[in-house]
Amino acid sequence: MCSRSTNGICSRYFVSKIAYLGTVNSVSRQFLTSSRGLSPSPVSLERSVSRETPDGRECRRGARGKSQASRNNFDLQASRRNVKRQPTTWNDKQKIYDHKPSQEVIEIVQLVKQGEDDMESKLNQRSLKISPAFLCEVLQVLNYNGVPALRFFYWVREAHPDMNRSSEILSLVVANLGGLGNYDSMLLLLKVLSQKGICLTEKAFGFLPVCGEDRASVCSSVKRVIDILIEAGGSCFRSGTYALIKMLCTLNAFDMATFVMEETARKTAYYNIMIWAKCRSGNFQEARDLLDEIRKFGFHPNANSYNYLLSGLCKNGKIVEACNLFNLMDEWGYIPDAVTFEVVVYHACRLQRLDFAMEFLNQMMLCGVEPRLTTHAAFIKGYFNAKRFQEAHKYVLDMSNRYKSSANVNYSLLASLHRQKGSVVEAREIIVEMIEKGLKPNLPVYMKVMKDLYALRMTDLVVDLKSRFWKFQASSKAG
């Protein structure tokens, strides 16, 4: 990390260099398309929105234990109170399935909808292969059609206990109760989830009528949910508040997101969701104004606050605004972190300005900041898209000598890219080089290269590579 004395140098360096980068062209669009395998900054920045949940360390994906006390606190009879079979009011923007459900899903939904006394027996007779994805799809269809899902969920919990640990699945059950107006059972369930440290996702609030309703009605619905979250407390309150704000921001309901903060608390993490969402929709000035609003209420923007905005500006070719933001960061004493550098590096790589990107990388290392895996991926893929294959190899070699922790991933990515462009022999040579350096190849990459060599009838190379790999495996186990 740059020291405070070198911070001004870093910021001035950014401003002096970033202005040379142009707007997105056809080459950069190709880079974006071809970079889906290892997602650099834009995607990793979006993922970090989910990871920024306040006190997220206290949340778990689920709990293995299923105490009898927890079950008794949330019994089936209580769940049936005030449940009406009525269509749930779902947002048009939040219709959770955009394809026709499978026939098996339709049949399960119909069986649950009928609600016969022997429903559980009929479900058992079907010998269903329940996966998280399948269960989520069933719950989504039940929610959209306003069919009570709690009895079905109880059957799943008994027949497949491992499914009782998924935040995604449990959030859909919460949404089902909310959509049916069964807030008493919703509160009971949230209390049980909080006791287990389970977090909620945005799917828990898909039933809220955010679009197409008057503001007073929306405020009333949101306020009721907030009150329930507050009463539930624990992980559901913290993660639920964050997820609710994120859902509202994703729907551009920023006034409602602000309302949630007014009813709960204003936090930098919550404002960062708004900055991220406004940048996604191109409202950069409004995102910039949020930095002032954060300070107005006595808080301080953090690394993500600036990185979300910087990423949006660079991605949309707003170089002047990006330079102004860097000046502002310097003025407020902000120290660039690994993601800040990666945003600029990624933008330069997708424009095939790799020499500029390398200058930023050198400045990054001079500041003592270790590049992230996605930063390395941006360089390697950038060199490949520019057909500078030898330089891609040199980059991987140099970085493996400097940063041992990323060597396996970088070499495996290089081999995978060679294989994808049809250079299977070169991909094999990369894997051999890895093994000779004592680096373990990525197993799927190794298997695909072996399969391609076999398909090309290069039997000698297949035997040699297999022998090297197994000797490496054996020596690794012995050591």
TrEMBL record:
<dbReference type="InterPro" id="IPR011990">
    <property type="entry name" value="TPR-like_helical_dom_sf"/>
</dbReference>
<dbReference type="InterPro" id="IPR002885">
    <property type="entry name" value="PPR_rpt"/>
</dbReference>
<comment type="similarity">
    <text>Belongs to the PPR family. P subfamily.</text>
</comment>
<feature type="repeat" description="PPR">
    <location>
        <begin position="302"/>
        <end position="336"/>
    </location>
</feature>
<dbReference type="Pfam" id="PF01535">
    <property type="entry name" value="PPR"/>
</dbReference>
<protein>
    <recommendedName>
        <fullName>Pentatricopeptide repeat-containing protein</fullName>
    </recommendedName>
</protein>
<feature type="region of interest" description="Disordered">
    <location>
        <begin position="35"/>
        <end position="89"/>
    </location>
</feature>
<feature type="compositionally biased region" description="Polar residues">
    <location>
        <begin position="67"/>
        <end position="89"/>
    </location>
</feature>
<feature type="repeat" description="PPR">
    <location>
        <begin position="337"/>
        <end position="371"/>
    </location>
</feature>
<feature type="repeat" description="PPR">
    <location>
        <begin position="407"/>
        <end position="441"/>
    </location>
</feature>
<dbReference type="Pfam" id="PF13041">
    <property type="entry name" value="PPR_2"/>
</dbReference>
<keyword id="KW-0677">Repeat</keyword>
<feature type="compositionally biased region" description="Basic and acidic residues">
    <location>
        <begin position="48"/>
        <end position="61"/>
    </location>
</feature>
<feature type="repeat" description="PPR">
    <location>
        <begin position="267"/>
        <end position="301"/>
    </location>
</feature>
